[in-house]
């Protein structure tokens, strides 16, 4: 079993790891983000005829 002391991580170290991950991600503009949201909304629309209907109780 791993000693508990080895499992602890400081908030500072965790924060630095998060900053490194964010720094590696590519930048996206606000307009690109909005366009992506619109695309996802269009893709995720389900026609009423494709929905499964549940019997009402």
TrEMBL record:
<protein>
    <submittedName>
        <fullName>Uncharacterized protein</fullName>
    </submittedName>
</protein>
């Amino acid at each position: 079993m791993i000693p508990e002391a080895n499992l602890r991580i400081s908030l500072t170290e965790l924060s630095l790891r998060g900053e490194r991950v964010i720094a590696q991600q590519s930048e996206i503009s606000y307009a690109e983000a909005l366009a992506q949201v619109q695309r996802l909304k269009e893709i995720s629309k389900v026609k009423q005829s494709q929905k499964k209907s549940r019997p009402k109780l």
